[in-house]
Amino acid sequence: MTHKIYVARRRAKFKGCNGQRVNIPYGSILEAQDGFLLWKGQPLCVDTSQNAHDFFSQNDDDLGVERGALVTAILSRLETPPNASPENRDMIQARWDKVWPDTLCQKYKRVEHEDFWLWNHDFYNAPLEDLQRIAALIGAKA
User: Fold this and answer.
1) Rg over CA atoms, the chain
2) Cβ atoms within 10 Å, residue 51
3) Mean pLDDT score of the chain
């Protein structure tokens, strides 16, 4: 039985795996047990799910808030808004052009997708030093 601690890196509003809607405030502490994040003792979502990645950061080392801020900053810096100008699209592409060949970043790419980049589960739980390096690479500020 595995037991981990997570922290809400932003307010979490979604329907949990039990069908109940939740509204979990930023900074709330959750436990993970047997592959599920628990909220108030009840299973909320699978710890590798998109909801887990979007709202929570592993906090076993008490660095979950910092980890979450870096993950959010990295994702934001690499996101292309639908209405982005060609100049902004070029700037964002230049950031991606740094990520693709980087050895550290490659460690956090989902291998089953060769043509596009998806961050793997390990990225969302990466050591702070790795996330700081990736953030520095693309100019993200947490």
Assistant:
1) 16
2) 18
3) 94
Written as six digits, the tokens of 53 are 């990645």
Could you list the beta-strand ranges (E) of the chain. 3-8, 12-15, 21-24, 29-33, 36-39, 42-46, 56-58
Nearest partner of 41 among 27, 26, 29, judged by Cα: 29
Whether the full predicted model's pTM is greater than 0.90, yes or no, is: yes
CA distance 138 to 142: 12
CA–CA distance, 7 with 24 (Å, rounded to integer): 10
Please list the residues that pair with 55 across neighbouring strands.
Answer: none
Q: Dmax of the chain from CA atoms?
A: 50
Question: Average pLDDT in the 62-74 region?
Answer: 96
For residue 59, give both structure tokens.
């906090």
Task: Please provide the distance, in angstroms rounded to a whole number, between the alpha carbons at the two ends of the chain.
Answer: 34
Confidence of residue 2 (pLDDT cuts 50, 70, 90): low
Domain boundaries, the chain: 3-60, 66-138
pLDDT of residue 3 exceeding 90: no
Tokens of 108: 């956090």
What's the one-letter identity of residue 111?
A: V
